[in-house]
Amino acid sequence: MKMSKYLKKITYLFLLLTVSACSNNGPDVTQPTIVSVTPADGDVGISVIASITLEMSESIDIATLNSTNLKLNASAGMMSKEAKGEGLVLAAMSMPSDVDTIISYDDNSNTITINPDSPLMQSTEYMLAISGVTDVSGNAIDNTFITFTTYAQLTEQTVYYNPDGSVNYYYAYSYDVDGQQVQSITYVDAGSDLTWFTSDDVISTHRDSTYDSSGNLLQSVSYNGAGADGVWLTSDDLSSSYDYYEYNAAGNGVLTVYGSATGADGIIATADDTVSSYYVTSYDADENRTRQASYNGSGSGADMLWFTSDDVPFAYNDYAYNSAGLQTNSAGFNSAGIDMTWFTSDDAMSYFNAYDYDVDGNRVLYVNGSNYGVDGIVLTGDDTVNSYSEYTYSATGNLEYSINYNTSGMDGQWYTSDDGVSSENFYY
Is the same domain home to 253 and 163? Predict the structure, then answer.
């Protein structure tokens, strides 16, 4: 009986050792992770010559450390605050621009270091995309994206000189904590001490700007007089012009105003202002721009007040998109038509652009014309067309061929087989 207890104990210990041995000698299935990264995701104000370091949780297979698996790129089509402030939606996002890098690895500290080949661009958001990096057992890290923004080197002064080397005039700039320019001052004389860059330098103009919490430019006011107190940079300085901007919840510009005076109420962008022009932009539910109406200094309407329902536009543009959000046409209108009422079906068209795409989103047709013809339908034979182009692509989506047409041929109908070819292009 005692022997049986001993055998049981020995058997139990044997099983424990066996399980432990299997556990210790089994395959490594643990994914490597990032212990720390410098710069951290979301960091701003990063040096343009900074290295990126990744401390890993375990040894990494150096064969997987390459510029494909560790890809650094910059978004080259980011819209500037100034462009957004215009409310004109002029910029389109371009494809990210890959950055050439040198990658090294320290096995003692499990640290990956990524050095850009050349200094990065200032005030630019970069993204490091990590994929396919594995440990020595082949376990891959989860796909990871790390973004950071480089610092903006801000200009303090811009000085202009005479041919003899003496100072002619200069600009001095001030910025807020986010690096956005809030004031520009023009100095045109050295003042009574005859010494430039001192406190008595003479101001001729200054321009002050304010921004919202998202960094969108709200207004920018220019001043050309010191006001009744004769002292510059005080509340009674005389304004000469202003720009004013409003945005929707998505940050897209909906109103842009260019004015020369604020009127009796002293408030920018109100009905009694002296307005040079303003622009109203509309968007669909997907934030695609659908219309931009333009009003000029003579369009305040019968009530002689700005920003009211009887303001008269001098032109507008309409835009349409397909279900994928790709623009299918744009059209400009410069007259209210026979009914003398703007934004109705008889408004006179000044131009149109039309686009068509294949199932992969590649543009296969571009048309430029002046109106949709008698039927009022775009891309029909009676369109008044200046020219159009067709494009073909390879199976991999590369542009292979384009053909351009500039006459409608003998049948007088556009988009038919006898249209006159102006040129062909072949791509390799």
Answer: no
Residue at 16 is within a domain:
no
298/422 Cα distance (integer angstroms): 43
Q: What is the DSSP string of 80-148?
A: PHHHHHHTS----PPPPEE--EEEEEETTTTEEEEEESSPPPTT-EEEEEE-S-BBTT-PBPPPEEEEE
- Say whether the peptide bond before residue 39 is cis (omega within 30 degrees of 0): yes
Q: How many domains does the chain have?
A: 3
pLDDT at 88: 30
- Residue 277 sits in which domain range? 213-426
Three state DSSP letters for 98-115: ECCEEEEEECCCCEEEEE
Domain boundary, last residue among 150, 168, 192? 150
Whether 17 is in a domain gets the answer no
User: For residues 253 and 289, what is the distance between their CA atoms, to the nearest angstrom?
Assistant: 10
Flag whether pLDDT at 22 surpasses 70. Answer: no
- Decide: pTM greater than 0.70: no
Which pair of tokens denotes residue 371?
Answer: 């109106």
Q: pLDDT (tens digit, 9 = 90+) per residue, 117-163?
A: 999 988 889 999 999 999 999 999 999 999 999 987 788 999 999 99
d(CA 257, CA 64): 54
* Residue 92 shares a structural domain with residue 169: no
